[in-house]
Design brief:
There is one protein chain. With 380 residues, the protein is an alpha/beta fold. The protein is built from 9 helices and 22 strands. It has helices at residues 73-86, 101-110, 147-153, 172-177, 194-197, 223-229, 249-258, 310-321, 325-339, and strands at residues 2-9, 14-21, 27-32, 40-41, 46-49, 51-56, 58-59, 62-63, 89-97, 119-125, 162-165, 183-186, 205-206, 237-241, 264-267, 279-283, 286-291, 294-297, 303-306, 357-360, 366-371, 374-377. α3 links the parallel β10 (119-125) and β11. It is globular, with a radius of gyration of 20 Å. The relative contact order is 0.17.
């Protein structure tokens, strides 16, 4: 199949051209200009690598917490089909909230049966976090990390898990001991004076920057100060929810200008009722309320997560910053694909590799997506 008359966009450039994939979904040609060969006319819309939402708890009625039960595989497949088609998302991290340790081990065991290549890793956003910055996590289930926890999680060799850590409440030497087996993210932490007590090199990510952490302080080194004041290593990624609700458009633009483009990734932090009607739902053991594109803890004004589709979150960022389309490739797929050494499949458009790409208009409306050798369309 040939996709022609498209604005082909990579992390490095954008040009009018065409792209051809064979019947196995492999990219066999990328050309500049036009072609007379038969194919899909992309009408000068933007063709770019399909997106990666690396921090999401589910959507369309499916929660990753359900992996604790049997018969979750079909629900996962249905969820992935929806985000492939409607959001242009090719891959995600399975993100779970704080739960009982028994349930966490059940999820770990069940993930040994995971077969879908659209799942990159398992992201444990709890229980090793701060009670002061717990957000939408059940406080009585929050615990400090122990060696037995890491040993039990390490029994699953199929994926390299991402573990959210509040540094001030956990054993830093223990984290270093298991560093080669896990990714660590600074998350839900009320830490101050991080640079005096810890080392950023121990960590790989920062969980939803600005949210669930010690806020900017003009006298002390908060975690926001730590990220903004330090030159981040090329392997450290800062998550950012750019829905215009978790962070304002002014802060979105400020963040774009003050964090290196190679260190920033856009996430949704979406919850399982994303795509469903407004109303009350459950987030693990906590009851939440959906109001349009945002979730709150029930009967509280505390944000619990996002209900905005990933492509719309990207649109908010792009409009707020006026960044280049190539930069949007970095933020929406390439940076995280590079971190996980998956650029042979995600975040790039290259000859002789599997094609995973989307066709969008300037407002990030998904016109078409090609993911895992399947063509999806949203055109009438």
């Amino acid at each position: 199949m040939i996709y022609k008359n498209a604005l082909i966009t990579t992390k490095d450039e954008q040009f009018l051209g065409y792209l051809e994939v064979d019947d196995k979904g492999t990219i066999i040609k990328i050309g500049r200009g036009t072609t007379n060969k038969k194919g899909i006319d992309c009408k000068k819309l933007i063709l770019m690598p399909a997106f990666i939402d690396s921090h999401t708890h589910g959507g369309y009625g499916f929660s990753f917490q359900e992996i604790v039960n049997e018969n979750w595989q079909n629900k996962l497949e249905n969820y992935l089909e929806k985000i492939h088609q409607h959001e242009g998302v090719a891959a995600v991290n399975i993100t779970t909230v704080t739960d009982t340790w028994e349930n966490i081990l059940k999820i770990s065991k069940n993930l040994l049966n995971l077969k879908n290549t659209s799942i990159l890793n398992w992201y444990l956003e709890g229980p090793f976090i701060s009670k002061e910055k717990k957000g939408a996590h059940k406080e009585e289930l929050i615990i400090p990390i122990e060696e037995k926890h890491l040993n039990e999680l390490n029994l699953n060799k199929k994926i390299k898990s991402i573990i959210a850590i509040a540094p001030e409440n956990n054993n830093n030497e223990l984290l270093k001991k298991f560093k080669k087996h896990f990714y660590y993210t600074i998350g839900h932490s009320n830490c101050y004076d991080f640079s005096k007590k810890f080392n950023l090199n121990t960590f790989d990510f920062f969980t939803h920057f600005y949210n669930g952490c010690s806020s900017f302080d003009h006298r002390q080194e908060s975690l926001v100060n730590t990220i903004l004041n330090n030159k981040l290593s090329k392997n450290f990624l800062v998550e950012f929810i750019s829905d215009g609700i978790h962070t304002t458009k002014e802060i979105i633009n400020f963040t774009y200008k003050n964090i290196d483009k190679n260190n920033l990734i856009i996430i949704s932090d979406s919850l399982s009722p994303k795509g469903l009607e407004n109303g009350d739902y459950w987030l693990g053991p906590l009851e939440i309320t959906k109001k349009n594109d945002i979730f709150y803890l029930k009967n509280q004004n505390k944000i619990a997560g996002s209900g905005m589709p990933y492509n719309k979150i990207l649109n908010v960022f792009h409009k707020a910053t006026n960044c280049t389309w190539s930069e949007m490739v970095l933020f929406s797929s390439y940076n995280i694909a590079k971190k996980f050494k998956k650029t042979n499949k995600f975040g790039t458009l290259k000859l002789n590799q599997k094609g995973n790409f989307v066709l969008i208009d300037k407002n990030f409306n998904i016109k078409m997506s090609f993911i895992n050798n399947k063509h999806y369309t949203n055109e009438n």
